[in-house]
Design a protein that fits this description.
Strand 6, helix 6 and strand 7 form a beta-alpha-beta unit. By secondary structure, the chain is of the alpha/beta class. Strands 1-9-8-7-6-4-5-3-2 form a nine-stranded mixed sheet, with helices on both faces. The protein has 17 helices and nine strands. The longest helix has about 35 residues.
Length: about 450
Amino acid sequence: MLGWLAALCVAVLLLAVTWCALCKLSPGADAGRRTDAAELVCKPSALAKHLMKTCTSFADYAPCAAWTWRVGAVLRSAYEACRGGGSKVHFARDHLQLSDGGLVALDWAFPKYQKRRRTSGQSASPVLLIIPNSFGKITRNVLQLCQTSLSHGYLPVVLNRRGHNGTALTTLKLQQFGDPADLREVVRYVRYRQPAGKLYAVSESTGSGLLLSYLGECGSSSYVTAAACLSPVFRCQSWFESGLCWPLERALVLYQKMCLSRYKTALSASINTDRLFATTTLRGLEEALFCRPPLADPSGTCASWETYWECNEPLRDVDEVATPVLSICARDDPIRGDASSTVPRELFESNPHLFLLLTDRGGHCGFSEGTSAAPNRATGNWSHRALLEFFRATANFMAAEERAKQLAARRRVLGAGTGGRVFRHRSVSTCKQVPACSHNIHAIYNWQRSYTR
């Protein structure tokens, strides 16, 4: 029965985006815009100069020729969201019990040609933590990212929140939109499982709200070397309030109701399920789940709509972010909305830790490349190539800054020991090597002063 409902939901979603494309968008809306190069928006810094010099993929975006006008952005977004076949990866699931008894699932990806996952805790391979959209849908974009990251030597792991993607709901608590408490325990567990590998994080669509909340709340204690957000929604309260075109919003609401229907009896003890399943908007669904009147919540945990977003808005602690974060967005994103009002350019121009790649075309989590992108390169997703190159360049920059700082410290020590005279002909290799630990937070983030210069 659920299989038929899922197929119906996908069909409704396809009809919805097609209706939005034909009714709200015109073919000539962007006829004069043909620039495909991505615009890098950031505050001038040493890391920004390094990225512009080494990340060649930032200026190497060639979208598929089939998606040439603005309706293509809507249809491409639906294609990326609904199609899930053709994956060349398998998953091994770990269930993590949280401190309050809740349960989340971690799906570790491995190639199809392997019969089982072969990673060990002593592996030094970097870990890529992938956070899907807030609706729990594992899209084709996520599967492609797992496949691409495996080919680049990463260990991808997909986070499934409470009640999402087959994860059992063992408590009456669902994860709020921007509450990073569960993610904090997940990061601690991943570091325990892979202590020798660096940790990177990628979020998709509305899932970026959770990642940005975590990075802002934890600051320099996030243990994440670098992060990326694919087609993020920045101003989430206004996004819920303004809503989407009604067919697309009804389709998303229907999908979320299907996922919650299996827990209807259990949730009725703390949530007004009649109100929940009667709503037809994303805002109404969020309010029914997390905003309850005081009389219905004697424990005092109720919150109004405004109070809820004071604690869950992703950018509430953005000034505390101490991790390089790359956001990849398209101007024709039909889900996020008009880039001039939904993308905070001033934030990226003033914060040295945040970087924005803004393209003309790409839709929502699209960015598929055509055959003309490069004759000697297989077609794929440009955003995945860009974020992996961003991770590599950031790690190289941090390692170079650390080596330069250690070299300067050794020279100061040698100069102090000889009354100010420095041994110019002494080899640096004779000095004692300082052991490096990939999870020493001070060693990871002591480059910040030179990074923001």
